[in-house]
Amino acid sequence: MKKAEILLRRTVKSILYPLYERRLVRSLDFSQTPQHVGVIIDGNRRWAKENPDELGGTSAARGHRAGAQKIIEFLGWCEDVHVQVVTIWFLSTENFKRSEEELKTLLAIIGESVDELKATGRWKIKVVGSLELLPEWLREKLDVPTMAKPNSMVVNMAIGYGGRREIVDSVKRYLDDAEKHGLSIKQAAENLSADAIANFLYTAGQPDPELLIRTSGEQRLGGFLLWQSAHSEFYFCEAYWPDFRRVDFLRALRAYSLRHRRFGV
């Protein structure tokens, strides 16, 4: 495609998309906005390969940095429509299988994102995941509380997170709590219920996510919020995460508002 044609397309989009966004906003019923939105930020590496820099660079680190730059913007969109909780999957337990070099870079970028999110002072930051998997310097950074207004949106940073591991951890915590209260294994088993396990999840006390978004065209959850997503609505977007736009978010909200939630009935 010629440069002139690319420039023309970008110009047309810059004119049309604001109009389309306003039309979408007018069509939305914000009383139907989900309280809790979960996001799988996928496609950073593929974005880097398909969008080389001036020197032809296509490194995974470049893609991860581009993805990190999108996060505060996305949270602002959520805040604008009065979402109460956002859970963003930064790093899965499976990601620890990546090369040492990529993992080191990814952890450094996550550390930078933590600093940037906390520096805004706009949201309550909560880390969910198996923190024992993380290096000590990152655990210390995550342990510093954020200063935000009482009614601020909660941002769950899922780092070192795996859905199956969360369920195992919650059962372990339930059993530890039962032991502290002097219950036998038999008594603990008799008292075990879905609500009991939910009370020990990483997101205990929060509403379950009504809407889960995954970017990059992949149509699977990969274990994200495995327990909590039992009745969630899913929205799969073709755009890679660094290219995810406000109009894509509004489309997800529109799709959610048009669905009839049956809750398994």
Could you walk me through the main structural features you see in this protein, from its secondary elements to its overall organization?
The chain contains 9 helices and 6 strands, in the order αβααβαβαβαααββα. The model has no long low-confidence stretch (mean pLDDT 90). The chain has a 6-stranded parallel beta sheet, with helices on both faces. Helices cover 47% and strands 13% of the residues. The protein has a domain at 34-161 and 207-258: Undecaprenyl pyrophosphate synthetase, CATH 3.40.1180.10. The longest helix has 25 residues, at 3-27. The chain is globular. Strand 3, helix 5 and strand 4 form a beta-alpha-beta unit. It is of the alpha/beta class and 265 residues long. The chain starts with a helix and ends in a 7-residue tail after the last helix.
Approximately how much helix is present in the residues? Answer: 40-55%
Going by CATH, the homologous superfamily of the domain at 34-161 and 207-258 would be Decaprenyl diphosphate synthase-like
Query: What is the total tally of β strands?
Result: 6
- What are the secondary-structure elements, in order, as H or E? HEHHEHEHEHHHEEH
Mean pLDDT: 90
Beta-strand portion reads 5-15%
User: How many alpha or pi helices?
Assistant: 9
The N- and C-terminal alpha carbons lie at a distance of: 51 Å
Radius of gyration: 20 Å
The CATH C-level name of the domain at 34-161 and 207-258 is Alpha Beta
Most strands sheet:
6 strands, parallel
